[in-house]
Amino acid sequence: MASCVGVLSWSNSPLFVRSSDSERQLADQYALHTSLDVIEEKTSSSLTLHAVANKKVIEQQTRELYLGVLFATEKQKVFGYVTNTRIKFIIIVDASNVGLRDNEIRQMFRKLHTAYTQLLSNPFYTPGEPIESQKFGQIVQGLMART
């Protein structure tokens, strides 16, 4: 079960943040913003630089969208996922939930990515604006309610 789900834009501004516990909302937002450094480090390492006859050639390696565990504390684990358009999805899970496997986290991110893609198909949504869609919120709530 996810305790917090966040969607951040390419410029790292929050588009959607939902926390399961209102008392932990500030701590969850801190964890979301702390994970941005790790996301930046993992995504920038996918670029390689080759020097060929005094010309710099940057080669983009194919990378996995799912970044895995960004960091873990004694209370929570933070997982990350970055789309090709640099939209960041972050899921925070309680560390006490040891029954949650990596495969299930990947499924949660796929479902979240699909919901975001459907949101972008809505002609009334402007990309980059905060997400206020009830349908998107229901899908996120379903991810947080899973056990």
UniProtKB/TrEMBL annotation:
Q: Does the keyword Transport apply?
A: yes
Organism name: Tigriopus californicus
The answer on whether this UniProt entry bears the keyword Transport reads yes
Primary localisation category = cytoplasm
Q: What biological-process GO terms show up in the record?
A: endoplasmic reticulum to Golgi vesicle-mediated transport
Q: What is this protein called?
A: Trafficking protein particle complex subunit 2-like protein
One Pfam family per UniProt: Sedlin_N
Check the record and name the InterPro entries matching this protein: Longin-like_dom_sf, Sedlin, TRAPPC2L
- Where does it reside? Cytoplasm, Perinuclear region
Source organism, top-level taxon: Eukaryota
Q: Which UniProt keywords apply?
A: ER-Golgi transport, Transport
Q: Which family does it belong to?
A: Belongs to the TRAPP small subunits family. Sedlin subfamily.
Q: What cellular component GO annotations does this protein have?
A: perinuclear region of cytoplasm
